[in-house]
Design goal:
The complex is a heterotetramer, with two copies of chain A (322 residues) and two copies of chain B (327 residues). Chain A is of the alpha/beta class and 322 residues long. Chain A contains twelve helices and 14 strands. Chain B is globular, with a radius of gyration of 19 Å. Classes of the chains: A alpha/beta (322), B alpha/beta (327). At the B-C interface, loops of B face helix 3 and helix 11 of C.
């Protein structure tokens, strides 16, 4: 199987879905040139109508995607960085995230919002926040945060075909990562976790770049005789509670790793759920490993310290073992 | 009002739309005052000419997006009294099965893409409906209704500019009823005509008499034709008047405070689009008085039927809470 | 002590602080007339400069508050409903919520954002969302959600004097509630919980209107012989973890009640924290009681069903007892 | 450039500001290409006349708010090379102790209220600084720099309108460098002059030659005087040119794609504000060549000192992570 970069995998997903379905199109700031290389080449293939550059107007662009969706199209709205989406928060939360329900099922908003999520490139606070926790809170939006080229491609294709609003989050810090990506078409269902490493002593649950932190920690732990299971949730909303509970039933220990601010985070959600539903299987307190509780600093040294590290994960695992 | 050459059937059509809105809204006001409706209601009385004139210039395929003050838009586009009224009562038979309410009525079958409670929130969505028409080479146009207050939201700016740069068939209809809640438009902006803002987007900006439904129709029709011909968006500012409260029940709520002086309020109330149209229809002998009265009777009766039906419509089942979530 | 409504208490807090400190002012849409009666009367007393009506422009108004704050004033920015704040999300999250840190401590943004939070008045989804969970996530913003006139007044006064951005949340559904409010000046420190009902069998943790749901449940439970302790957090960020852990150490049972969507909610945060830090004291799984996981419906019947009820709380308590 | 009557000390002052920016930015470009700076950097080369001309018209009390392309604004307002450079290196000695970086430099002591990485994000804040001046009856003015791209953000609209309705002393300086990232301004809006948008807010909107620092100074000074006199906000559109990349390192990143044609790029590069000013200063014998060279040497040396100091400045301590959070 060919090994491809994350960027290439996303690009393939976009191109394949645009070829398959003429109602799929891409809209956003500089998607033609491609601020993120994953949208490159699409303009050359699909032209003016299907790859649309816009003014810098996140609110209107997000809303335009919604309006196009409820009139029959399948927009992919690229809002670039997670924080830029704050300017479109109203359209996403109030409109896309409630329209079908609010109008009693009369319509559906089948569209994908795409942004880079989180920190890791020393871009400063305004370009380095994770936003998944906000949208996990919203009842009518799906959220995806893949950790590998393979997962990214398969999930993006599913997101584009999904009849609901989906927030697809990619991570600059995964840009260069490669994995095997088959030549044949494949889809990964939204809502299905993937055990990235099987293990029996502790369940580590993560998504996106945090999966790699978890895997690095698991490797070190293995050499210390601790056999960690690493679950990559891949989809954050809906999320595969069943897979997590099953694993905890086996391991009795749980660590949530999440690259975002700690309070009301995805890690809090996972930890609360495990504590609520697998309490009697737990041999030790659940543990959360997240960003430190400060805005994201620019300095690479501080940024690294602000993000969850493999050492942080190892320490958390050790707390569950003591 | 001088509207030579306006086809008789168009005038009757517009008159009917105005009257339907008026009678519906009057009844909603009564019901609200009687404490029969939950939530907030914002009536369209005094502004009927705008929705009626614009919607008469549209086909069934054309779409509209509406606001918190949305009943008039739904009716003008051809909405059903029964499903509207049931929605206002929060009943299962409502357009949105009771999940939407006054500020969130939609009828996708007639191109009414929904009322939106967020001021300015509908404009980007209307741009998207226009984008859709452009994308599919349809000659559908997209209309967005919004208030003078909404014209100060960032979404106004971004939406008009985006529609302009992509040359989309979107008609932005600003219902300048002189107030956003309790704030006069003249205090919320330092210009007399919101239409002048069109200059900033390189699109036509027109001021129209928002009390004269037939003028609105003519101006809207020209904008619609321009949009269908690929000429892009138009901003129409309809100068109109809110006859009553921002939201029903305001008097009690304001505890004696006032924000409109008697003269202004009286002047606003004198400019009644229904009266003007009635005079026009009568003077030009478009319909005889008996028919006008019969029409009124019919409409009033169907409003009453809607109320009765709404009352009989069941409350939503609790199970419905979990329905309509995922497509 | 005189019994006052919530609205009157808030009004007093605003007036007292504006009298005390000339740098305090109120800005927002229709604050002069007062969309919420709590700002009424201030215009008559303080005039044009200190009670400023604005156009409907949430983003600019929020940012103007920030700009005024970093140049020495103490604005109270009224953004009316929680969801309208979505339009100002960028200014609050990216700017107010990070400015001091981002600029290395050079400045401080001492201002209060004020909105109505949550549902309960059949206003439909666009006027009925709880927003506290989003701002709890942000490292440099304080969040307050009081449940009584007494707490509201004391906390709002502290918020206005605080040198950091504070989100003060009020609740339409508490509008008519009365409690004793002293005539003498008092302050309630931000970050301090209040035990609204002492009990020994189970700890129920809540804030805002949910406190009343919890108290109603506690009353019913009492007649069934279950003695519930109801902790009103009052401040959500920072929150009084110590008080909660202390209570759980005593009761061994924990129920979080939160009027908001379930996922990544305040309830998730509280439950995760208790599970993490009081695991060995817990006799039963932590429990969360939140909104049902759907947008907020208009119909009063459905709205009521969507919100956490005393019965929901009782059921959750019973799950901790079984 | 014809600027009769422009005081010599003003010309020298402006020339110095332009030169300081240029030499600083050239060095930053070099450092970035050598991989010595983390994150992103957006250089101000070609646009120096705007910050220099505007800031020369301000007092130390007046405030400015800046953008992602902010180095020039900090320098023009009187910022310190050492603390800037250390910040770009992410070092403890930086303006923000390494927490801000290129897109977030601030110096509150000189009224530089901060660079902001969110396009359009600074405008509301500048309105607030103006509000503060108005509130305290100070004659301070507030300046906001932003790009042509930012003029399409909702924040532009809301900010100008809010400043206008409250008659605040805010000067909105649009640096129209013809591009927002890779998108030409003419594609992102259907108008030639962003200044025309001022019409929508009832405030003056002026176009100025953004390559001519002395013209910018004159236009800015008039706006400043107007603002101080209680005349409210002005929108100034400075037509300028980005000489190079949107962000440094762009060439590698674009993988061969181009978005500016040779002619346009050459024309943009020919319009060099430093060269123009240098010619003016020389031709009008404002400073002799030797002094000009000495000045350049001095500035270049202090840039080098700043680099050396930045290199020596320690990395932030990990403990600093938890500092500067609460006031
Ligand atoms: C984003 C947002 N801000 C504020 C409100 C509260 N609000 C509801 S209606 C209204 C006034 C709107 O004025 P205008 O746009 O002129 O419409 P009108 O009510 O006059 O029809 C306001 C401020 C809201 N619903 N949404
Ligand atoms: C809200 C937001 N949207 C998008 C971006 C990404 N971005 C950074 S700079 C830029 C272009 C800005 O153009 P302009 O305002 O003309 O400023 P210039 O770079 O030309 O100085 C964009 C789109 C951003 N930083 N913030
Ligand atoms: Mg109005
Ligand atoms: Mg530009």
């Amino acid at each position: 199987m060919p090994r491809k970069t994350y960027v290439a995998a996303i690009q393939e997903a976009l191109a394949e879905e645009m070829r398959r379905d003429p109602s799929v199109f891409l809209i956003g700031e500089d998607v033609r040139i491609g601020v993120f290389p994953s949208t490159r080449g699409l303009y050359a293939e699909f032209g003016d109508k299907r790859v649309i550059d816009t003014p810098i107007s996140e609110l209107a662009v997000a809303g335009a995607g919604i309006g196009a969706a409820i009139t029959g199209l399948r927009p992919i709205v690229d809002l670039m960085f997670g924080t830029f989406l704050y300017l479109a928060f109203d359209q996403i939360a109030n409109q896309a995230g409630a329209m079908r329900y609010m109008y009693g099922g009369q319509t559906k908003a089948s569209l994908v919002f795409m942004v880079q999520n989180g920190a890791g490139s020393s871009a400063g606070h305004h370009h380095s926040q994770a936003v998944h926790q906000f949208f996990m809170n919203m009842p009518q939006i799906k959220v995806i945060l893949p950790s590998s080229p393979y997962d990214g491609k398969g999930l993006l294709k599913s997101a584009i075909r999904d009849d609901n609003p989906v927030l697809f989050l990619h991570s600059l810090s995964l840009g260069g990562k490669r994995s095997e990506v088959p030549t044949e078409e494949y889809l990964i269902p939204i809502g299905l976790a993937d055990v990235k490493r099987a293990g029996s002593d502790v369940t580590i649950c993560a998504a996106g770049p945090a999966v790699h932190t978890a895997l690095a920690a698991a490797k070190t732990l293995a050499s210390a005789g601790v056999d960690a299971e690493v679950i990559d949730l891949r989809s954050l909303s809906p999320w595969d509670k069943g897979a997590v509970l099953e694993s905890v039933a086996k391991t009795g220990r749980f660590v949530a790793v999440d690259e975002s601010f700690p309070t009301c985070s995805a890690a809090s959600e996972w930890a609360a759920t495990v504590a609520e539903e697998a309490f009697h299987q737990l041999k030790a307190p659940v543990q959360r490993v997240t960003n430190k509780d400060v805005p994201m600093p620019f300095s690479p040294v501080l940024e690294k310290a602000a993000l969850p590290s493999a050492d942080d994960v190892i320490a958390a695992v050790q707390r569950t073992l003591s | 009002m001088h509207h030579q050459g306006m086809p008789v059937d168009v005038v009757i059509d517009i008159y009917t739309r105005v009257l339907r809105i008026r009678r519906f809204e009057e009844e909603v006001g009564r019901l609200f005052r009687q404490g029969q409706l939950p939530g907030f209601v914002h009536l369209y009385i005094g502004e009927e000419a705008v929705a009626a004139g614009v919607c008469a210039a549209l086909t069934d395929e054309d779409t509209i997006v509406s606001t918190h003050r949305g009943h008039g838009h739904v009716i003008a586009k051809g909405g059903d009294f029964k499903r509207m009224m049931a929605e206002l009562f929060g009943k299962a038979g409502g357009y949105c099965k009771g999940k939407g309410g006054s500020m969130h009525i939609a009828d996708f079958d007639i191109g009414m893409l929904g009322a939106i409670g967020i001021v300015g929130g509908g404009m980007p969505i209307a741009v998207g409906a226009g984008l859709s028409a452009w994308y599919t080479d349809s000659d559908r146009v997209s209309v967005c209704f919004f208030g003078d207050g909404a014209a100060n939201e960032g979404s106004f700016h971004e939406s008009l500019n985006l529609a302009s740069t992509l040359t989309l068939p979107v008609i932005f209809v600003c219902e300048n009823n002189q107030y956003g809640e309790f704030t006069p438009a003249r205090q919320a902006m330092n210009i007399s005509d919101i239409a002048d803002r069109a200059v900033g987007y390189g699109i036509p900006g027109l001021v129209a008499d928002g009390v004269d439904a037939l003028e609105i129709y003519r101006v809207a029709l020209a904008a619609v034709e321009r949009a269908r011909a690929g000429g892009g968006p138009t901003l129409i500012e309809a100068k109109t008047h809110r006859r009553g409260s921002h939201a029903e029940g305001e008097e009690a709520f304001l505890g004696g405070q006032t924000y409109r002086d008697e003269t202004e309020l009286a002047a606003a109330q004198a400019k009644d689009p229904l009266l003007l149209l009635h005079t026009y229809v009568s003077e030009n002998e478009i319909l005889p008085a008996e028919l006008l009265e019969a029409l009124d009777g019919e409409i009033t009766a169907s409003v009453q039927e809607a109320v009765a039906a709404a009352r009989e419509s069941p409350e939503p089942e609790i199970a419905a809470l979990y329905e309509d979530l995922w497509a």
